[in-house]
User: Fold TetR/AcrR family transcriptional regulator from Devosia oryziradicis.
Amino acid sequence: MAHKPRKDMIAETRAKLIAAGRKAFGEVGFADASMDSFTADVGLTRGALYHHFGDKKGLLEAVIVQMDAEMAERLRIRSAQAATRWEGFVQEGIGYIEMALEPEVRRIMFRDAPAVLGDPAAWPTANGCIEALKASLSELAAAGEIAPDTDFEAIARLVSGASTAAAQWIASTDAPQAAVQRASDAYRQLVEGLLYNRPAPQRRA
Assistant:
């Protein structure tokens, strides 16, 4: 039987470690996930983990990159299914907030990762998120939905920060379902301030 090319073996080993780490992090949390245990479950050693990711923190970063890509694709589909370009933009943010209800996402992405990796704005996935938001805002401006002189980067960072903070709140509260509804309503109210031709607020009598 022919041996697999080295690059395929490396990719396969990395994939096994990421899958094992993700399972452990999702089930018992980062702090309680035993490297010896989850590497042994897939027939590998702690040494393999050190070789490919440096340490358990490096593995968590790889898990976050994988999960972020999956979440982004789900949000892209959700946005594409919306009736209008604007509603698609809003639904991406609300969809992200709602993902905080999912056990794996809640524990890994919104609880453990900020504690271990620090500020989400500094994660390796952050720039991709900001660039995607900037592109969406640019498209909305071109379509006349928001002002053409909008500072796309500043707004993208503010919107990203708002949805991330909301998701972390939901992940830590004892009443997540109620928090999702409140956060989603507030997020919509917040971003509607960007609309170029939004109705003027009514004055009090």
Summary: DSSP finds nine helices and no strands in the chain. The first helix runs from residue 6 to 28. The CA atoms of residues 42 and 108 lie 20 Å apart. Confidence is low (pLDDT under 50) at residues 200-205.
